[in-house]
Amino acid sequence: MLTMSRFTERIFFFSFIVFGALNFIRVSPNGLISLAFVLLVLGICILALDALMHRSVLQMPERWAVCYIFGPWLMLFGALSVSLAWSSAPTITGMSILFEYRPLLLIPVITGCLLLIHRSPEHVLRWMWISGTIGLAVVYVHRLVPFEGILYPIRPRGSHIIGGMILSLYVALSLWLSLCQPLRSRAAWVSIACALAASVYVVVLDSGRTGYLQIASVWIVYLFFVLPPNRRWMALIGVVLALLTVFTVFELPRQRVGLALHEAQMFFAGEFEPTSVGLRLQWLLIPIQSLFDGYWFGVGAGDYQSAIDHALQVRPQLFPTDNLHSEFANMTLMLGIPGLLLYVGLFITPLAVCYRARDRISLSAHCLMAMVMSTLFVSSLFNSALKDFGEKNILMVMVPLAMFLVLSELRSTAGAQHRERSSAVGHS
Q1: What's the burial of 335, exposed, middle or buried (CB within 10 Å: 0-12/13-18/19+)?
Q2: What are the tens digits of pLDDT across the range 248-258?
Q3: Which pTM does this prediction carry?
Q4: For residue 37, which of 401, 390, 404 has the smallest C-alpha distance?
Q5: Which pLDDT tens digit goes with each residue over 315-329?
Q6: Are 217 and 377 in contact (CB under 8 A)?
Q7: Is the dihedral of CA 42, 46, 52, 57 positive or negative?
């Protein structure tokens, strides 16, 4: 019999799967993804209301881990909200910034909803892997067949920045899946082959330089976990040599990396030019200058744009922007040193939880969390990962799933320990 609780769980599960699949497959227009997001929020509200009525939220074990993992996200969103009090801009301006940073609130909320449904994290992750495999096939086909005429509506969408993020997370999914299979089994080799295919696409065929670093970070983390300690340094050398070989043999990545180095050299030589790397380095001066001006706690979310405009007046050689293209820079400008520390905490706390509970969670779960967070970290250095539309959507899928996997395993081991203690007391 289908109860109301089961019905609300199915609504949320369906909306989450659809939202995640549309982002991984990459052929959906932004309007359809936005509609799927609205359905996801509706599913969250329905499930949350049912959970509150049945007090399911209060039954989550391992609250210390939940607090550590969710804490920096919720504190950062709360700090942005409170910062509106010292912002001079109209409230509506600050609210628009808060809406852009909705992943800070929704990632913990989505993770909590996943913990409430009766689905295993492995089941949900496999759905995302299937969607990512379809997306990988689509981008390869796009290289061979022009998506024109009747095929134009189903062309791959998203910039190389978004594409690099999606495929890097797909590589992380594939490598996680290989760890879940028997060693040297056909399924494990298929998963690794898919990870290699996605990596080759990003490094050889795509032009996103952030993607190069994201792919490298995912493989380094993976090899760090699967290799014995005395061989981990070889993993780093191996990844570096593989990238150097690619840059030597293939012209596109060699040109892109060479251009990046040239643009950086121009900036440090005092030439302020509107190049991709040059602009990012220029805009890093804005939050640094705000700290020198005494904004230790930031200018506030509402004054984000006005602070940038003021910096452009003080330094007329800088080029205008409404996005600093670095999440670390964004947080430093809006919230100062505390915001920067809280944002760093997003990466440290989940990995600290995994390390503290390393005897209670699987190597594959720990590895997936590290790979996902490394991808987000690299993206945050050079892009506004949470502020930008495309990246935030895929992050609202994969970060909650990594958290869901870790917390589910902690919950399972906590339940087993409780049953053991109860059995021991009964026998005594």
Answers
A1: buried
A2: 888 888 888 88
A3: 0.91
A4: 390
A5: 888 888 888 999 999
A6: yes
A7: negative
